[in-house]
Amino acid sequence: MEPIIEVKNLGKKYSIGERERYTALRDILANIIKHPLSWLSNKARGGPQHDFFALTDVSFNVEKGDVLGVIGGNGAGKSTLLKILSQITPPSNGSVTLRGTVGSLLEVGTGFHPELTGRENIYLNGAILGMRKKEIQNKFDQIVAFSGVEQFLDTPVKRYSSGMYVRLAFSVAAHLEPDILIVDEVLAVGDTDFQKKSLGKMEEISHDKGRTVLFVSHNLDSIRKLCNKVVLLEKGKVKRVGTNVDEIIDEYIGAGGSRDHVVEWKNQNEEYKHPKFTPITFSLTDGSGKLIANPIDRKQDVFVDLSVHLEEIDADLIFGYILTDEQGNQLMWSLQSDTKKEEWPTVVKGKNNFRTKLPLHVINEGSYKVELIAGLYYREWFLRPGSSRIALDLHVSGGLSESPFWVSKRPGVVAVVVPWKNK
Which residue from 4, 396, 42 is spatially nearest to 221, judged by alpha carbons? Predict the structure, then answer.
């Protein structure tokens, strides 16, 4: 049987213009007079350019019913590959053969018209996927029920939140049952329950109905559970492809150089320096000083270790971390000032080593950032929450927390009191 997707020697090249330095009008006029042909040539080309290859010589096959995971660090070429497979952008060279209809969900609102209502967009999106009106009508109630947007069905989707957009878009793509369903990281916009429901739906589509799914995600636990085949991209090239999913994911995690798996930061060449607070190292360890290996199980003990040099002692010094999810939402603060001031860890002039335990019992399965923050109490931030230059990666497996801290009707960041100690 022929594969449902064949990718052969695929390449994608972009021409990137280089920004020129500021040039005065008199300089431009002088260049036109002195070098008219060169000026016209540059004008026609739109200025100096250089080529960037987002994909190079990518080849693999996907069989009918496969669930293919596409993994790799930021800039590896994952989204470019999916755009070519979705026929949104053409390849520069090579070929893609698709033997079936394709439904894509690459970003919020893909295939939706913002001025149309949710109801109208279901029919529009179904028509784009090649479905007849009767087929859409037969699935209509299931689509609406799965998406959970019944109350807003006759509201223009431009007024939807990003989560509502994604729920309806995924529901349409999944229930109209294209032969090939392509899903990018966009599902991470949905809440935890919807993500679980969506993953279950993709599993049903592939295992029970024999359709093919291509799935890009930084949530490696979802890739492990859902996919029977993985493509690992690195700098636009296929590093590995195969059905040994765990082995390929472990290789990706062990690569160490990936931004997505940084568990230790070192202040090399004075990358960060402040007159009052200069961090030396910031890391996630097992408590004995050994760095953790992502992904970690929720039952493991994980500690946040910080070494810092203080030029002087300031009684108002505060430091700690913020836990953020994949979308950058701040989920939890932990500062040494969460307790009474007299209980703050003792600091000394010179080098200090601090440690606190991550409260994994309130963390759901998924990927997170641990950002170092520091400042002076009610005065200033050295490392500002939400835009800290120092961050680590945490990937958690082991199911859902019994009482996940962000499932709350009251919005806002939750501060969890965990003791900081000076080692």
Answer: 396
Q: Residue 106: is its pLDDT beyond 90? A: no
Count structural domains, the chain: 2
Inter-CA distances, 207 with 104, 201, 202, 212, 394, Å: 19, 10, 8, 9, 30
237 and 297, same domain (yes or no): no
Q: Which of 22-26, 139-143, 313-317, 409-413 has the lowest mean pLDDT?
A: 409-413
- pLDDT for res 74: 67
Q: Is residue 247 domain-shared with residue 277, that is, in the same domain? A: no
State the Cα–Cα distance between residues 184 and 104, nearest whole angstrom. 8
Pick from 253, 284, 315: which residue ends a domain? 253
Phi, psi values for residue 177, rounded to 5°: 50, 65
Full-model pTM: 0.55
Q: 18 and 134, same structural domain?
A: yes
Tokens 């910080």, residue located = 306
**What percent of the chain shows pLDDT beyond 70?**
80
Do both 312 and 201 map to the same domain?
A: no
Task: Evaluate if residue 409 carries a pLDDT over 50.
Answer: no
Point out the least confidently predicted range of 41-45, 116-120, 203-207, 277-281.
41-45
Tens-place pLDDT, residues 254-295 = 654 344 568 999 887 677 778 888 999 999 999 888 999 888
Domain hosting 147: range is 5-253
Q: Do both 271 and 401 map to the same domain?
A: yes
201 & 309 share domain:
no
CATH number at residue 319: 2.70.50.60
Q: How far apart are CA 219 and CA 367, in angstroms?
A: 6
Q: Which residues pair with 371 in a beta bridge?
A: 322, 391
pLDDT of residue 256: 42
**Among residues 200, 221, 253, which one ends one of the domains?**
253
